[in-house]
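Regression test case RT-17, inverse folding.

Input:
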């Protein structure tokens, strides 16, 4: 079973000590600890993108008592940059698209090469746009004699050696009409 984990988490994106116009009312310390957080959406704990605004928390650096000061909080929220790692998945998306495009182009190139120089064992993934419903099936080259190429239908439903012989010019017509989806070679 595949479980898809996603949700929101909060990352601390800054910790700073500040003594800006402050004296703790409990311990009289002048130091405050400011932490800035950013909520982000994650998939499998990998950050996807930030959600909502940054929020700062201020506590006394010595006695830890919380402190509310809108001015200082806003100052730190505004000056803290959202780190790029909170966009990890977003950055990966173009990479995935690029990879898929590359694989498709590789397949298309192999198909062109294998079509130009067929070999026994080549597997043709075919498309048959039948009665409004496209049917896919595979054929494997079993013999080549001059321009005649013999194929065996590679479908479990037709296990009993259904064979076709095509001439090279027939195959070119099939290719040009988009009936040959892909050619694989082991
Ligand atoms: Zn204090």
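Golden output:
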């Amino acid at each position: 079973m595949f479980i898809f984990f996603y949700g929101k988490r909060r990352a601390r994106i800054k910790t700073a000590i500040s003594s800006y116009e402050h004296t703790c009312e409990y311990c009289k310390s002048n130091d405050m600890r400011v932490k800035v957080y950013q909520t982000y959406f994650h998939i499998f704990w990998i950050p996807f993108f930030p959600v909502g605004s940054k929020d700062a928390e201020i506590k006394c650096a010595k006695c830890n008592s919380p402190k509310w000061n809108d001015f200082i909080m806003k100052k730190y929220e505004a000056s803290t940059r959202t780190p790029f790692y909170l966009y990890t998945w977003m950055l990966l998306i173009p990479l995935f698209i690029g990879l898929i495009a590359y694989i498709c182009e590789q397949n298309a190139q192999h198909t062109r090469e294998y079509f130009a120089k067929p070999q026994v064992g080549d597997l043709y993934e075919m498309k048959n746009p039948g009665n409004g419903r496209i049917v896919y099936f595979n054929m494997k080259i079993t013999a080549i004699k001059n321009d005649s190429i013999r194929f065996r239908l590679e479908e479990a439903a037709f296990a009993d050696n259904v064979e076709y012989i095509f001439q090279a010019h027939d195959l070119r017509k099939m290719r040009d009409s988009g009936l040959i989806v892909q050619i694989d070679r082991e």
